[in-house]
Amino acid sequence: MIQFNNIHKRFGKLTVLDGLDLDIKKGGIFAVLGPNGSGKTTLIKCLLGMVIPNKGDIRFEGKSVLKKWEYRDNLNYLPQIANFPPNLSVIELINMVKNLRPKNSNEEELIQLFGLKSFLNKKLGNLSGGTKQKVNIVLTFMFDSDLIILDEPTTGLDPIALIHLKELIQKEKDNGKTILITTHIMSVVEELADEIVFLLDGKIYFKGSIDALKKQTDNENLEHAIANLISKQYA
Ligand SMILES: Nc1ncnc2c1ncn2[C@@H]1O[C@H](COP(=O)(O)OP(=O)(O)OP(=O)(O)O)[C@@H](O)[C@H]1O
Predict the structure, then answer these.
(1) What is the whole-number distance in angstroms between the Cα of residue 14 and the centre of ligand 1?
(2) Which of 17, 41, 52 maximizes ligand 1 atoms within 8 Å of its Cβ, making it the mutation to test the pocket?
(3) Which residues cross the membrane (predicted)?
(4) Average pLDDT of the segment spanning 58-73
(5) Which one of 2, 43, 63, 201 is CB 3.0 to 4.6 Å from 24, fit for a cystine?
(6) Rounded-to-integer distance, Cα 153 and Cα 109, Å
(7) How high does pLDDT run on average in the chain?
(8) Mean pLDDT throughout 165-190?
């Protein structure tokens, strides 16, 4: 479904992606992991056209995405930090996004699921971090798309909201969707991911199942297996 071919991205003197190759097949949950600053968000933003690589090509369903925009109709994106307009109310933002994106939406079901009814007329600038994240989730999941990209979706969520989010992601997978998720929460990875993609030194350092990673690192505990990969960077 997605191919990154020889992607290079530098910010000034800092090389973030250094000839990265990655193939993501259709259907399933892919966890994009790596230490802080390893380039996970940069990789996602390259796919979204929000960051332009210095070199390389990215293909979505066989077609190059560079400097094209139509492919974005068929993906949903949850940003790591949602900069909502503080003076808009929750419902005004939801309606604005619906107007911008002429697709069927199921926001009512999601508003109910995340207990947002009593917040609909509140200004976004006055919401708690976790409540803002629930709004972020509603905006991401209310449209039907084949690809769902979630950059740190669990930030600030209480345990009930986290359970609902995990069920939502699982349901999308069961419907044949492809989900790319970045997270530092290993229990989320362990519960959901079909495959792990681990970024280090600007390249894919590991790609495979959780079991394969545990075997490779000779560690039954995922958190320690990942720590083992990260520690190679400092060795
Ligand atoms: N627009 C930018 N200008 C300059 N440097 C940038 C820019 N965007 C990202 N970087 C740098 O690129 C590196 C990779 O950042 P990125 O956000 O992709 O990492 P990440 O793996 O998502 O990190 P985290 O786990 O902390 O979210 C970091 O050193 C960051 O400071």
Answers:
(1) 10
(2) 41
(3) none
(4) 88
(5) 2
(6) 19
(7) 93
(8) 96
pLDDT tens, residue by residue, 89-106: 999 999 999 999 888 999
Q: What is the pLDDT of residue 20?
A: 97
Taking each helix axis from N to C terminus, what angle separates 90-100 and 129-141, rounded to the nearest 10 degrees?
Answer: 30
Distance 99 CA to ligand 1 centre (A): 31
Beta-bridge partners for 181: 31, 150
Instruction: Identify the H or E element spanning 116.
Output: none
Q: The domain that contains 111 carries what CATH number?
A: 3.40.50.300
Say how many domains are in the chain: 1
Closest protein CA for atom 7 of ligand 1: 11
Q: Stretch 222-235: mean pLDDT, rounded? A: 78
For 136, other C-beta atoms within 10 Å of its C-beta total 21
**Residues contacting ligand 1 via CB (< 6 Å):** 11, 14, 16, 34, 36-42
Range of the domain at 146: 2-234
